[in-house]
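Q: Make up one entry.
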Amino acid sequence: MKDMEYILRFLMFSNENFQGTTAISLKKELNLFMDTTKNNVNGSKLELYRRQFIDTMTLLEKINTSSFENLNSAGHPMGRFHPTVFDSIAVATIRAIESNIEIPWLDNRAEFDRRKKKLVSDTEYIEYITMRTTNTAHITGRIELAYKYLYGDVSQ
């Protein structure tokens, strides 16, 4: 059941805007997102959601199967899925795909790993993925930092 929650988190954070509020109730927002009677979800919207998820996971799995794990102090994957790392990297990735930008680490795992290491070492990112994780500033902050580090111009 948890896997469905993470997929919903990805779709919700990719397609909803939480402006005007300082924090969300994740359970409440996921339930509202799933309420097809209020969200006018039809076949084309479901196909969009399916495509967003498949495109994102295909790209990330191709480069690194531990994309959604946090790293230890030595820079190695910790061996377990991390939900806020997942939602930040996955949402940043679908935004990059939908913007048609050139993926700077495509077919270069070492470059992806270098960028991810910089991301998870950023003190602000660490705060956003570990403290007050449903605070809307922390949600948008971790996604923006993931986009910056993984898809932006990050010099050595």
In short: Residues 24 and 134 are 6 Å apart (CA to CA). Residues 2-151 form one domain.
